Amino acid sequence: MIPAIFLSLPDLRCSLLLLVTWVFTPVTAEIISLDTENIDDILNNADVALVNFYADWCRFSQMLHPIFEEASNVIKEEYPNANQVVFARVDCDQHSDIAQRYRISKYPTLKLFRNGMMMKREYRGQRSVKALADYIRQQKSDPIQELHDLAEITTPDRSKRNIIGYFEQKDSENYRVFERVANILHDDCAFLAAFGVVSKPERYSGDNIVYKPPGHSAPDMVYLGSMTNFDGTYNWIQDKCVPLVREITFENGEELTEEGLPFLILFHMKEDTESLEIFQNEVARQLISEKGTINFLHADCDKFRHPLLHIQKTPADCPVIAIDSFRHMYVFGDFRDVLIPGKLKQFVFDLHSGKLHREFHHGPDPTDTAPGEIFLI
Predict the structure, then answer these.
(1) Which of 134, 199, 243, 292 could form a disulfide with 166 if both were Cys (CB 3.0 to 4.6 A apart)?
(2) Interior CA angle at 52 toward 51 and 54, to 5°?
(3) Is the pLDDT reported for residue 134 higher than 80?
(4) Eight-state DSSP code of residue 30
Protein backbone atom coordinates (compact mmCIF):
# COMPACT_ATOMS: atom_id res chain seq x y z
CA MET A 1 0.00 0.00 0.00
CA ILE A 2 1.37 3.42 -1.03
CA PRO A 3 1.47 5.81 1.92
CA ALA A 4 -0.44 9.10 1.64
CA ILE A 5 1.58 12.28 1.17
CA PHE A 6 0.47 15.36 3.10
CA LEU A 7 1.71 18.75 1.95
CA SER A 8 2.31 21.69 4.24
CA LEU A 9 0.26 24.81 3.52
CA PRO A 10 3.11 26.64 1.70
CA ASP A 11 3.85 23.53 -0.38
CA LEU A 12 0.16 23.13 -1.16
CA ARG A 13 -0.11 26.73 -2.32
CA CYS A 14 2.93 26.27 -4.55
CA SER A 15 1.51 23.08 -6.03
CA LEU A 16 -1.86 24.74 -6.70
CA LEU A 17 -0.10 27.68 -8.35
CA LEU A 18 1.86 25.36 -10.59
CA LEU A 19 -1.35 23.49 -11.49
CA VAL A 20 -3.20 26.72 -12.34
CA THR A 21 -0.23 27.95 -14.38
CA TRP A 22 -0.11 24.67 -16.30
CA VAL A 23 -3.84 24.76 -17.05
CA PHE A 24 -4.05 28.39 -18.19
CA THR A 25 -0.71 28.97 -19.91
CA PRO A 26 -1.18 28.77 -23.69
CA VAL A 27 0.89 26.23 -25.55
CA THR A 28 3.98 27.94 -26.96
CA ALA A 29 5.22 27.29 -30.45
CA GLU A 30 8.53 25.52 -30.70
CA ILE A 31 11.44 27.28 -32.36
CA ILE A 32 13.04 24.50 -34.36
CA SER A 33 16.81 24.30 -34.14
CA LEU A 34 18.23 23.48 -37.56
CA ASP A 35 21.37 21.44 -38.20
CA THR A 36 22.91 19.63 -41.14
CA GLU A 37 20.74 16.58 -40.50
CA ASN A 38 17.30 18.21 -40.49
CA ILE A 39 17.55 21.53 -42.33
CA ASP A 40 16.63 20.34 -45.82
CA ASP A 41 13.72 18.20 -44.66
CA ILE A 42 12.20 20.91 -42.47
CA LEU A 43 12.59 23.79 -44.92
CA ASN A 44 11.49 21.78 -47.97
CA ASN A 45 8.24 20.84 -46.25
CA ALA A 46 7.39 24.32 -44.96
CA ASP A 47 5.13 26.61 -46.99
CA VAL A 48 6.86 29.56 -45.31
CA ALA A 49 9.82 29.42 -42.92
CA LEU A 50 11.44 32.33 -41.12
CA VAL A 51 14.93 31.38 -39.98
CA ASN A 52 16.94 33.27 -37.38
CA PHE A 53 20.68 32.92 -38.03
CA TYR A 54 22.30 33.93 -34.75
CA ALA A 55 25.42 33.77 -32.60
CA ASP A 56 25.17 33.39 -28.82
CA TRP A 57 27.96 35.90 -28.19
CA CYS A 58 26.08 38.59 -30.15
CA ARG A 59 24.09 40.93 -27.89
CA PHE A 60 21.58 41.67 -30.63
CA SER A 61 21.02 37.95 -31.15
CA GLN A 62 20.30 37.59 -27.44
CA MET A 63 17.84 40.48 -27.57
CA LEU A 64 15.98 38.97 -30.54
CA HIS A 65 15.40 35.51 -29.03
CA PRO A 66 12.35 36.35 -26.84
CA ILE A 67 10.85 38.58 -29.54
CA PHE A 68 11.25 35.84 -32.15
CA GLU A 69 9.68 33.27 -29.82
CA GLU A 70 6.70 35.50 -28.99
CA ALA A 71 6.11 36.26 -32.67
CA SER A 72 6.15 32.52 -33.32
CA ASN A 73 3.48 32.04 -30.63
CA VAL A 74 1.27 34.72 -32.18
CA ILE A 75 1.54 33.28 -35.68
CA LYS A 76 1.07 29.69 -34.52
CA GLU A 77 -2.39 30.59 -33.25
CA GLU A 78 -3.32 31.94 -36.69
CA TYR A 79 -1.64 29.18 -38.72
CA PRO A 80 -1.82 26.08 -36.52
CA ASN A 81 -0.96 23.48 -39.17
CA ALA A 82 2.61 22.32 -38.70
CA ASN A 83 3.91 23.13 -42.17
CA GLN A 84 2.02 26.37 -42.86
CA VAL A 85 4.56 28.57 -41.08
CA VAL A 86 7.78 27.44 -39.42
CA PHE A 87 9.94 29.55 -37.13
CA ALA A 88 13.45 28.11 -36.94
CA ARG A 89 16.95 29.09 -35.90
CA VAL A 90 20.55 28.25 -36.71
CA ASP A 91 23.42 28.62 -34.25
CA CYS A 92 26.04 29.88 -36.69
CA ASP A 93 28.94 29.15 -34.35
CA GLN A 94 27.90 25.52 -34.03
CA HIS A 95 26.93 25.19 -37.70
CA SER A 96 29.34 27.38 -39.64
CA ASP A 97 28.79 25.22 -42.73
CA ILE A 98 25.12 26.25 -42.82
CA ALA A 99 26.04 29.90 -42.28
CA GLN A 100 28.46 29.68 -45.19
CA ARG A 101 25.90 27.92 -47.37
CA TYR A 102 23.47 30.83 -46.97
CA ARG A 103 26.17 33.53 -46.99
CA ILE A 104 25.50 34.75 -43.46
CA SER A 105 27.97 37.47 -42.51
CA LYS A 106 26.20 39.34 -39.70
CA TYR A 107 24.04 38.44 -36.72
CA PRO A 108 21.21 38.12 -36.29
CA THR A 109 20.04 37.65 -39.88
CA LEU A 110 16.43 36.71 -40.65
CA LYS A 111 15.92 34.82 -43.91
CA LEU A 112 12.61 33.77 -45.47
CA PHE A 113 12.23 30.40 -47.19
CA ARG A 114 9.39 29.05 -49.33
CA ASN A 115 9.28 25.29 -49.83
CA GLY A 116 13.03 25.16 -49.19
CA MET A 117 13.95 28.02 -51.51
CA MET A 118 15.62 30.99 -49.85
CA MET A 119 14.17 34.34 -50.86
CA LYS A 120 16.79 36.84 -52.00
CA ARG A 121 15.38 39.63 -49.82
CA GLU A 122 16.06 39.07 -46.14
CA TYR A 123 13.84 40.59 -43.46
CA ARG A 124 15.01 44.13 -42.74
CA GLY A 125 12.01 45.45 -40.82
CA GLN A 126 11.60 46.36 -37.20
CA ARG A 127 12.61 43.70 -34.67
CA SER A 128 9.33 43.61 -32.75
CA VAL A 129 6.66 40.96 -32.22
CA LYS A 130 4.07 42.96 -34.16
CA ALA A 131 6.39 43.72 -37.07
CA LEU A 132 7.49 40.09 -37.42
CA ALA A 133 3.91 38.82 -37.18
CA ASP A 134 2.72 41.37 -39.75
CA TYR A 135 5.55 40.37 -42.07
CA ILE A 136 4.51 36.71 -41.95
CA ARG A 137 0.85 37.63 -42.50
CA GLN A 138 1.92 39.58 -45.56
CA GLN A 139 3.90 36.60 -46.85
CA LYS A 140 0.86 34.38 -46.40
CA SER A 141 -1.47 36.73 -48.27
CA ASP A 142 -2.50 35.87 -51.83
CA PRO A 143 0.08 37.35 -54.26
CA ILE A 144 -2.22 36.94 -57.26
CA GLN A 145 -4.88 39.44 -58.29
CA GLU A 146 -7.92 37.72 -59.76
CA LEU A 147 -9.38 39.33 -62.87
CA HIS A 148 -13.14 39.40 -63.17
CA ASP A 149 -13.79 40.83 -66.63
CA LEU A 150 -12.12 41.22 -70.01
CA ALA A 151 -11.49 44.94 -69.51
CA GLU A 152 -9.09 44.16 -66.66
CA ILE A 153 -7.25 41.68 -68.87
CA THR A 154 -6.72 44.17 -71.69
CA THR A 155 -5.74 47.13 -69.50
CA PRO A 156 -3.09 46.04 -66.97
CA ASP A 157 -0.69 48.53 -65.42
CA ARG A 158 1.98 48.69 -68.14
CA SER A 159 4.45 50.44 -65.84
CA LYS A 160 5.00 47.02 -64.25
CA ARG A 161 6.12 43.62 -65.45
CA ASN A 162 2.87 41.65 -65.61
CA ILE A 163 2.51 37.88 -65.56
CA ILE A 164 -1.04 36.81 -66.42
CA GLY A 165 -2.28 33.25 -66.11
CA TYR A 166 -5.41 32.07 -67.93
CA PHE A 167 -6.93 28.96 -66.39
CA GLU A 168 -10.05 26.92 -66.89
CA GLN A 169 -10.36 26.38 -63.17
CA LYS A 170 -8.63 27.43 -59.98
CA ASP A 171 -8.52 23.93 -58.52
CA SER A 172 -5.90 22.60 -60.92
CA GLU A 173 -2.26 21.59 -60.91
CA ASN A 174 -1.51 24.28 -63.49
CA TYR A 175 -2.72 27.00 -61.14
CA ARG A 176 -1.02 25.51 -58.08
CA VAL A 177 2.36 25.71 -59.86
CA PHE A 178 1.57 29.27 -60.99
CA GLU A 179 0.63 30.21 -57.41
CA ARG A 180 3.85 28.72 -56.04
CA VAL A 181 5.93 30.74 -58.50
CA ALA A 182 3.96 33.90 -57.68
CA ASN A 183 4.69 33.45 -53.98
CA ILE A 184 8.40 33.55 -54.75
CA LEU A 185 8.54 36.30 -57.39
CA HIS A 186 5.72 38.64 -56.39
CA ASP A 187 8.21 41.36 -55.40
CA ASP A 188 9.56 41.43 -58.97
CA CYS A 189 6.37 41.10 -61.03
CA ALA A 190 2.65 41.71 -60.76
CA PHE A 191 0.78 38.40 -60.97
CA LEU A 192 -2.77 38.24 -62.27
CA ALA A 193 -5.09 35.34 -63.10
CA ALA A 194 -8.43 34.77 -64.80
CA PHE A 195 -10.62 31.70 -64.67
CA GLY A 196 -13.53 30.07 -66.47
CA VAL A 197 -15.61 32.20 -68.82
CA VAL A 198 -13.50 35.30 -68.10
CA SER A 199 -10.32 33.59 -69.32
CA LYS A 200 -11.91 31.58 -72.14
CA PRO A 201 -11.14 34.08 -74.97
CA GLU A 202 -7.43 33.82 -74.07
CA ARG A 203 -7.33 30.03 -73.77
CA TYR A 204 -7.11 29.19 -77.46
CA SER A 205 -5.42 25.85 -76.85
CA GLY A 206 -5.83 25.44 -73.10
CA ASP A 207 -4.40 27.11 -70.01
CA ASN A 208 -1.51 29.46 -70.68
CA ILE A 209 0.75 32.11 -69.13
CA VAL A 210 1.53 35.45 -70.79
CA TYR A 211 4.20 38.00 -69.97
CA LYS A 212 3.29 41.63 -70.63
CA PRO A 213 6.46 43.76 -70.38
CA PRO A 214 6.50 47.40 -69.25
CA GLY A 215 5.52 49.98 -71.84
CA HIS A 216 3.36 49.56 -74.91
CA SER A 217 5.90 48.86 -77.65
CA ALA A 218 7.34 45.52 -76.54
CA PRO A 219 5.29 42.48 -77.62
CA ASP A 220 3.71 40.01 -75.22
CA MET A 221 5.41 36.65 -74.73
CA VAL A 222 3.71 33.29 -74.16
CA TYR A 223 5.13 30.46 -72.06
CA LEU A 224 5.39 27.34 -74.24
CA GLY A 225 6.62 24.87 -71.63
CA SER A 226 4.73 22.48 -69.36
CA MET A 227 2.63 24.38 -66.86
CA THR A 228 2.86 21.54 -64.35
CA ASN A 229 6.67 21.66 -64.40
CA PHE A 230 7.65 23.97 -61.56
CA ASP A 231 11.32 24.39 -62.52
CA GLY A 232 10.51 25.22 -66.15
CA THR A 233 7.71 27.63 -65.21
CA TYR A 234 9.77 29.30 -62.49
CA ASN A 235 12.84 29.77 -64.70
CA TRP A 236 10.80 31.27 -67.54
CA ILE A 237 8.94 33.69 -65.29
CA GLN A 238 12.08 34.63 -63.34
CA ASP A 239 13.83 35.43 -66.60
CA LYS A 240 11.01 37.86 -67.43
CA CYS A 241 10.62 39.36 -63.95
CA VAL A 242 14.26 39.90 -63.03
CA PRO A 243 16.14 41.99 -65.65
CA LEU A 244 19.48 40.63 -66.81
CA VAL A 245 21.04 44.03 -66.03
CA ARG A 246 19.67 45.52 -62.81
CA GLU A 247 20.12 48.98 -61.39
CA ILE A 248 22.08 49.22 -58.16
CA THR A 249 21.00 51.93 -55.74
CA PHE A 250 21.84 52.84 -52.16
CA GLU A 251 18.57 51.16 -51.17
CA ASN A 252 19.30 47.74 -52.69
CA GLY A 253 23.11 47.70 -52.57
CA GLU A 254 23.38 45.62 -49.41
CA GLU A 255 20.74 43.21 -50.69
CA LEU A 256 22.65 42.69 -53.94
CA THR A 257 25.91 42.22 -52.04
CA GLU A 258 24.31 39.47 -49.97
CA GLU A 259 23.72 37.45 -53.13
CA GLY A 260 27.45 36.73 -52.89
CA LEU A 261 28.33 37.33 -56.55
CA PRO A 262 30.84 39.89 -57.84
CA PHE A 263 29.49 42.91 -59.72
CA LEU A 264 30.01 43.89 -63.34
CA ILE A 265 28.88 47.51 -63.25
CA LEU A 266 28.25 50.13 -65.89
CA PHE A 267 28.53 53.61 -64.38
CA HIS A 268 26.63 56.00 -66.63
CA MET A 269 24.86 59.34 -66.50
CA LYS A 270 21.14 58.91 -65.89
CA GLU A 271 20.22 60.51 -69.20
CA ASP A 272 22.74 58.38 -71.12
CA THR A 273 20.37 55.63 -72.18
CA GLU A 274 22.42 54.83 -75.28
CA SER A 275 25.40 53.50 -73.29
CA LEU A 276 23.04 51.50 -71.08
CA GLU A 277 21.40 49.93 -74.12
CA ILE A 278 24.79 49.02 -75.61
CA PHE A 279 25.87 47.47 -72.30
CA GLN A 280 22.62 45.51 -71.98
CA ASN A 281 22.91 44.17 -75.51
CA GLU A 282 26.54 43.12 -75.10
CA VAL A 283 25.88 41.45 -71.74
CA ALA A 284 23.04 39.47 -73.36
CA ARG A 285 25.22 38.63 -76.38
CA GLN A 286 28.51 37.78 -74.65
CA LEU A 287 27.73 36.88 -71.04
CA ILE A 288 24.37 35.14 -70.81
CA SER A 289 26.18 31.91 -69.82
CA GLU A 290 27.77 33.76 -66.87
CA LYS A 291 24.43 34.78 -65.34
CA GLY A 292 24.90 32.65 -62.23
CA THR A 293 28.51 33.68 -61.60
CA ILE A 294 28.34 37.49 -61.65
CA ASN A 295 25.71 40.20 -61.22
CA PHE A 296 25.22 42.58 -64.14
CA LEU A 297 24.40 46.06 -62.85
CA HIS A 298 24.22 49.69 -63.85
CA ALA A 299 24.61 52.73 -61.61
CA ASP A 300 23.99 56.47 -61.78
CA CYS A 301 27.38 58.24 -61.99
CA ASP A 302 26.13 61.27 -60.09
CA LYS A 303 24.86 59.20 -57.19
CA PHE A 304 27.90 56.92 -57.12
CA ARG A 305 30.63 59.55 -57.17
CA HIS A 306 32.37 58.04 -54.13
CA PRO A 307 32.84 54.53 -55.62
CA LEU A 308 34.10 56.19 -58.80
CA LEU A 309 36.75 58.04 -56.78
CA HIS A 310 38.04 54.68 -55.58
CA ILE A 311 38.96 53.87 -59.16
CA GLN A 312 40.18 57.41 -59.82
CA LYS A 313 37.21 58.31 -62.00
CA THR A 314 34.62 61.09 -61.94
CA PRO A 315 31.21 61.48 -63.60
CA ALA A 316 33.03 63.27 -66.45
CA ASP A 317 34.68 59.93 -67.31
CA CYS A 318 31.41 58.06 -67.63
CA PRO A 319 30.43 55.68 -69.09
CA VAL A 320 32.82 53.41 -67.19
CA ILE A 321 32.67 49.62 -66.82
CA ALA A 322 34.24 47.97 -63.76
CA ILE A 323 34.19 44.73 -61.82
CA ASP A 324 33.80 44.87 -58.04
CA SER A 325 35.03 41.60 -56.54
CA PHE A 326 34.47 42.93 -52.98
CA ARG A 327 38.26 42.88 -52.55
CA HIS A 328 39.32 45.09 -55.45
CA MET A 329 37.80 47.00 -58.34
CA TYR A 330 39.07 46.35 -61.86
CA VAL A 331 38.42 48.84 -64.66
CA PHE A 332 37.53 47.59 -68.14
CA GLY A 333 39.36 50.24 -70.17
CA ASP A 334 37.68 52.19 -72.96
CA PHE A 335 33.91 51.79 -72.96
CA ARG A 336 33.69 51.49 -76.77
CA ASP A 337 35.80 48.33 -76.58
CA VAL A 338 32.71 46.60 -75.25
CA LEU A 339 31.61 46.33 -78.91
CA ILE A 340 34.67 44.21 -79.79
CA PRO A 341 33.39 40.60 -79.97
CA GLY A 342 34.45 38.63 -76.91
CA LYS A 343 36.19 41.55 -75.19
CA LEU A 344 33.70 41.86 -72.30
CA LYS A 345 33.52 38.09 -71.95
CA GLN A 346 37.31 37.87 -71.65
CA PHE A 347 37.26 40.55 -68.95
CA VAL A 348 34.88 38.42 -66.84
CA PHE A 349 36.86 35.23 -67.56
CA ASP A 350 40.03 37.00 -66.37
CA LEU A 351 38.25 37.67 -63.07
CA HIS A 352 37.27 34.03 -62.59
CA SER A 353 40.72 32.73 -63.59
CA GLY A 354 42.42 34.99 -61.06
CA LYS A 355 44.28 36.93 -63.74
CA LEU A 356 42.83 40.31 -62.75
CA HIS A 357 43.75 39.75 -59.11
CA ARG A 358 47.25 38.55 -60.01
CA GLU A 359 47.92 41.49 -62.32
CA PHE A 360 46.52 43.87 -59.74
CA HIS A 361 49.31 42.91 -57.36
CA HIS A 362 52.14 41.95 -59.73
CA GLY A 363 51.52 43.88 -62.95
CA PRO A 364 50.70 42.54 -66.42
CA ASP A 365 51.66 38.97 -67.23
CA PRO A 366 54.94 38.98 -69.21
CA THR A 367 53.33 37.67 -72.41
CA ASP A 368 50.35 40.02 -72.28
CA THR A 369 49.82 43.60 -73.24
CA ALA A 370 48.85 45.84 -70.35
CA PRO A 371 45.14 45.51 -69.52
CA GLY A 372 42.85 48.36 -68.55
CA GLU A 373 43.63 50.41 -65.49
CA ILE A 374 43.26 48.53 -62.22
CA PHE A 375 42.85 50.23 -58.88
CA LEU A 376 42.36 49.24 -55.29
CA ILE A 377 38.84 49.76 -53.97
Answers:
(1) 199
(2) 145
(3) yes
(4) P
